[in-house]
Amino acid sequence: MSTVIPFHKPFTDSQEYQAIQQVLSGGILRGDGPVSKRVQLLMRTITGAHHAFFTTSCTHALEIAVQTLGIGPGDEVIMPSYTFVSTANAVLMHGARPVFCDVVTDTLNMDFSHAARLVTNRTKAIIPVHYAGMAVDIPAMMKFKNTYGVHIIEDAAQGADAYFKGRHLGTFGDFGCLSFHDTKNITCGEGGALLTDDPELARRAEIIREKGTNRSAFLRGEVDKYTWIDRGSSYIQSDLLAAVLEVQWEKRTTIKELRAGAWNQYHHIFEPFERSGKLKRPVVPEGAETNYHTYFITVGTAEERDMLLEAYKQAGIQASFHYIPLHNSPFGSKLHSGIPPYLPVTEQMSDRIIRLPLYPSIASEHPDFCDRVYAITASVLH
Ligand SMILES: Cc1ncc(COP(=O)(O)O)c(C=O)c1O
Fold first, then answer.
1. How many domains does the chain have?
2. What is the pLDDT of residues 273-312, one digit of tens each?
3. pLDDT band with cut points at 50, 70 and 90 for residue 1
4. 192 lines ligand 1 (CB under 6 A)
5. Can you tell me whether residue 248 is helix, strand or coil?
């Protein structure tokens, strides 16, 4: 068998090692040390958000956002069923109820017209997910907010260094949440960020992130002593990982360019298959500047998808399916009483999607990656 092409691979080198070594020799390993402060400033500069908190994960950033907005028992939060469990868990953790809506075919992003039909007088917020690093329909999202007066928490887990009309994803709603998990474009292994422009929300979020205390204000010299003033948890990430993250953000242009090269090669080889109706390629929405997080195709049936996945696997190409819709999952299906949600696009797309291996060094390490993917695809979808 030819060499295995992994699904993803972080783009690290000696710079990350050196950055970690510097923190170790500096002796401040805890969170919110000098490196975290620098990386938070860097994230503010890049994203344009007025406040950026480095957190232990995107999951935790979502939890802080939900708590800060006062979402709790009796409240409903609309989100796509086609998402990672964290989007829903963050809402459940605070006693509110996730309500699942459908997605649109082209981008697999939230269908705002379907979401509108799910609004009740309990709806407190929506959590749109920028799938694959491509913006949701931002004008529709802002119209939704104005029409229904709900909060917006953007799940931009996959959206680091992705934009809509020049504005970074995660900076349109009340809060935006980014992920720096190992699978993401910019990574420190595990980590996240919480973005907001609102000073009052930032003040409350800072307290929740620091175990419910005003310790951050104390460290800035704003209060004499710090004390317990809210429910909170330990959402602060170590300076060791901040050091890795700082290097990764500095490399963002290279990371994006290399990913774009591979993404565009896939787009090129799949074009004839799309022309002959065998599959669909992703559509980058007008105004969106993707970060090339994922390249995905959708084929005609679930059987075809499984055959193609198996053929890629046999050929050492680690392609993958993606989310199992939350409303049909063992836990998610217990969340609704009565008629289960009808989400036809979600169910169809999750059955038919394939994500191809994509990471910055793919073309240099496997110069024939597209030839191999093309050959397998042609052998199955002939
Ligand atoms: C849409 C979405 N939301 C949230 C998360 C959670 O991110 P983290 O692993 O940083 O908690 C992920 C992770 O893949 C994700 O894809």
1. 2
2. 999 999 999 999 999 999 999 999 999 999 999 999 999 9
3. low
4. yes
5. helix
Helices (H), the chain: 14-26, 34-47, 58-68, 85-92, 112-117, 138-148, 199-209, 215-219, 239-250, 252-275, 302-314, 344-352, 362-365, 369-380
pTM over 0.90: yes
What CATH number is attached to the domain comprising 187? Answer: 3.40.640.10
Q: Report yes or no on 1 lying in a domain.
A: no
Question: What's the gap in Å between 191 CA and the centre of ligand 1?
Answer: 10
- 89 and 232 share one domain: yes
Ligand 1 mean position to 58 CA, how many Å?
6
CA of 86 to the centre of ligand 1 (A): 6
The domain of 311 spans 252-380
* Catalytic residue of the set 143, 165, 184, 313: 184
Asked if 294 and 171 count as a contact pair (C-beta separation under 8 A), the reply is no
- For ligand 1, atom 9, which residue shows the shortest CA distance? 181
Q: In this structure, is residue 9 part of a structural domain?
A: no
81 pocket-lining for ligand 1 (C-beta < 6 Å): no
Whether residue 189 is found in the same domain as residue 263: no
Domain at 315, CATH number: 3.90.1150.10
334 catalytic residue (yes or no): no
Atom of ligand 1 nearest to the CA of 59: 11
Token output for 109: 């992003």
- Residues 107 and 229 placed together within one structural domain of the fold: yes
Amino acid at 81: S
